[in-house]
């Protein structure tokens, strides 16, 4: 899958990140791997697929290989998404 990071902050940039997952991986597992790879705290961003926020305790079972996810920065108690 491809993860595109978008944010108004300096921490996330408008770049594409390749992330690998298995059907039984949770969203939290993949966010952790992305966080390690990008030097980000996995609690400070969310992933979106087809307009829906992905919940950390769910798996990637219904997300196809080659899908594109959006990675957005969580700003305090709000989530902000900025256009490309």
UniProtKB/TrEMBL annotation:
Top-level taxonomic group = Eukaryota
Example GO molecular function? protein tag activity
A GO biological process of this protein is:
protein ubiquitination
Which Gene3D superfamilies does UniProt cross-reference here?
A: Phosphatidylinositol 3-kinase Catalytic Subunit, Chain A, domain 1
What cellular-component terms does GO give this entry? cytoplasm; nucleus
Recorded hits in InterPro entries, A to Z, give: Ubiquitin-like_domsf (IPR029071)
**UniProt name for this protein:** Ubiquitin-like domain-containing protein
| Organism field | Solanum lycopersicum (Tomato)
């Amino acid at each position: 899958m491809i993860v595109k990071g978008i944010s108004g902050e300096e921490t996330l940039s408008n770049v594409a990140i390749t992330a690998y997952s298995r059907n039984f991986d949770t969203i939290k597992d993949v966010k952790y791997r992305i966080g390690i790879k990008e030097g980000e705290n996995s609690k400070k961003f969310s992933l979106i697929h087809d307009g829906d926020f992905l919940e950390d305790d769910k798996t990637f079972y219904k997300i196809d290989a080659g899908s594109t996810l959006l990675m957005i920065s969580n700003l305090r108690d709000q989530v902000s998404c900025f256009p490309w």
